[in-house]
Specification:
Shape: globular
Structural class: alpha/beta
Number of helices: 10
Distance between the termini: 30 Å
CATH superfamily of the largest domain: 2-enoyl-CoA Hydratase, Chain A, domain 1
CATH topology of the largest domain: 2-enoyl-CoA Hydratase, Chain A, domain 1
Strand content: 15-25%
């Protein structure tokens, strides 16, 4: 992993930080590869229960693609997928919960990073936007996730006008879980991560898998799938420990 992305572990939490503050944490190939490597590392380590994604400094979470690199929207056309799209796929198929710590400007492709996490906390002075139309392109890949979260008319306004919007507007649209004063950002992220880290890792992983699987199912398909999933979940060591701890009035020890 290059210096463009840093990882740090604290207890059961792995924090992935885009480390290009002088470029407003804009994405290049190294950043995309570094975030993907961090996601893989978190899933390969059984002791990691929560992923936090953020940007270095206090100016930007991620301002999108690095337009100064000369290759932001171009790729090897012999390759059927792009690295950025593959990163969004990786996060969607992940089974460990993730939180976006939105510490500054979140624009364009940075909005995709925001959307690929499960939850998000933002400082109340952050600026959001999808300004691609201003440079003659469109937030195509971001749409894949954005339209699952935000009402279509707001998606249309944001994408077609390219104009910025506020944290309060983002929260009202469902993009954010919490908006807090900048000085309270770290405490709120830690609070939310703690509420995930002390729960059954097995239940969360199987739950995320089920949520992803039933997203496009009909009710009849989803209920048939989930009745099988609850039977599998109930047979695990975590479920046995959780029920025993409840009966014995103690905290569970997750294995």
């Amino acid at each position: 992993m290059s210096d463009a992305v840093l990882t740090a572990r604290s207890g059961h939490v792995l924090t992935i930080t885009i480390n290009r503050p002088d470029k407003r944490n804009a994405m290049n190939a190294e950043v995309v590869a570094g975030i993907a490597a961090g996601w893989h590392a978190a899933h390969d380590d059984p002791d990691i229960r929560v992923i936090v994604l953020t940007g270095a400094g206090d100016k930007a979470f991620c301002a999108g693609a690095d337009l100064g690199g000369g290759q932001s929207f171009f790729q090897d056309l012999s390759k059927p997928t792009s690295d950025y799209a593959d990163l969004l796929r990786l996060a969607q198929n992940g089974t460990k919960p993730s939180i976006a710590r939105v510490n500054g400007t979140c624009m364009a492709g940075g909005m995709g990073l925001l959307c690929m996490t499960d939850m998000a906390v933002a400082a109340d002075d952050v600026v959001f936007g999808l300004p691609e139309v201003k440079v003659g392109v469109f937030p195509m890949q971001v749409l894949s996730l954005l339209q699952q979260i935000v009402p279509r008319r707001l998606v249309a306004e944001w994408c077609l006008t390219g104009e910025p919007f506020t944290p309060d507007e983002a929260r009202a649209a469902g993009l954010l879980n919490h908006v807090v004063p900048r000085g309270a950002l770290d405490d709120k992220v830690a609070w939310l991560a703690g509420r995930l880290a002390d729960k059954s890792p097995m239940a969360i992983r199987r739950g995320k898998y089920a949520m992803r699987a039933i997203h496009a199912m009909s009710f009849d398909e989803a209920i048939a799938f989930t009745e099988g999933q609850i039977a599998l979940t109930a047979a695990t060591e975590d479920a046995k420990e959780g029920i025993a701890a409840f009966q014995e009035k103690r905290k569970p020890v997750w294995r």
